[in-house]
Amino acid sequence: MPQNDSPIIDLAKEEDVLKILPCQAVYSSRNAGWKGIQLLHNSLPAWESIEHSYTEHVVDISDTQIAKLERVLENKRQETSISTGEVAIIPAYTPHKLTCNQASDCTFLIINPSVIARVAYESTDPDKVELVPHFDKLDPLIYQIGSALKNILQTNPQGSSFYAESMVTALAAHLLQYYSAQKAVVQNFRGGITKYKLQQAIDYIHQNLAEDISLEALAQHVEMSQYHFSRLFKEATGLAPYQFVMKCRVERAKELILHSQLNIAEIAYLVGFNSQSNFTQNFKRFTGVTPKQYTANIK
């Protein structure tokens, strides 16, 4: 635990952020409706924080090519030069202090401890849920997850909650595997997903394409944990649940283009996209052409 006079910081509160950082985040997921995970992207001058701790687990990802810093975690000190893609793991309520002698960019992934506990219960020995502090080191998977979350937050913030839910489940499993007190061995879920449950999930997706489908709702519908559902659904279909939903929305849109007189904006709304630009981006990803080009080709 931190010293008695060290503040405990809730990064969801702007006033708390300014207790340890010299400025507010460049952008964040505060208004994106994410559950279990939040993101803050920071562009900071040279600075030094006071000792503090966080109410939630924090993954600090470097977005700077080279930066010299000094980090203190649980009274252990490290002076190092970090580069893009290096990450530090700061578990909840761990005493922490940071000094950086130059301007730098970084991304905080803020994970609710209940997510770690849930994934541990579903996939490993629950007694191994305690994360341990780790100084900065390269972790390509965490960097990739952080980059993917930043991208969707910038391109489609209001439609990003399902994607974020999928990412936090994968991130929690990775943290348990490599950053817990004892390396967690993920248990095998025998038998895969049954054809009945798979069809239940697919039917639910088709029936709710116009709605904001969540990973939590999908998993509950087939009475599976989010962790096992995500993994086994991808094994069965070749696509993660989020990707499968996007593909179904594009397929429905193609049908509406062929058989209705609706314009592109109306079709985008009817199949569950919250903006025409997001619809166009996903349509091109799955078909290779924009909706406008597709419409021209069939006429």
TrEMBL record:
<protein>
    <submittedName>
        <fullName>AraC family transcriptional regulator</fullName>
    </submittedName>
</protein>
<dbReference type="InterPro" id="IPR018060">
    <property type="entry name" value="HTH_AraC"/>
</dbReference>
<dbReference type="Pfam" id="PF12833">
    <property type="entry name" value="HTH_18"/>
</dbReference>
<feature type="domain" description="HTH araC/xylS-type">
    <location>
        <begin position="199"/>
        <end position="297"/>
    </location>
</feature>
<keyword id="KW-0805">Transcription regulation</keyword>
<dbReference type="InterPro" id="IPR009057">
    <property type="entry name" value="Homeodomain-like_sf"/>
</dbReference>
<keyword id="KW-0804">Transcription</keyword>
<keyword id="KW-0238">DNA-binding</keyword>
<dbReference type="InterPro" id="IPR020449">
    <property type="entry name" value="Tscrpt_reg_AraC-type_HTH"/>
</dbReference>
<dbReference type="InterPro" id="IPR050204">
    <property type="entry name" value="AraC_XylS_family_regulators"/>
</dbReference>
<dbReference type="GO" id="GO:0043565">
    <property type="term" value="F:sequence-specific DNA binding"/>
</dbReference>
<dbReference type="GO" id="GO:0003700">
    <property type="term" value="F:DNA-binding transcription factor activity"/>
</dbReference>
<dbReference type="InterPro" id="IPR018062">
    <property type="entry name" value="HTH_AraC-typ_CS"/>
</dbReference>
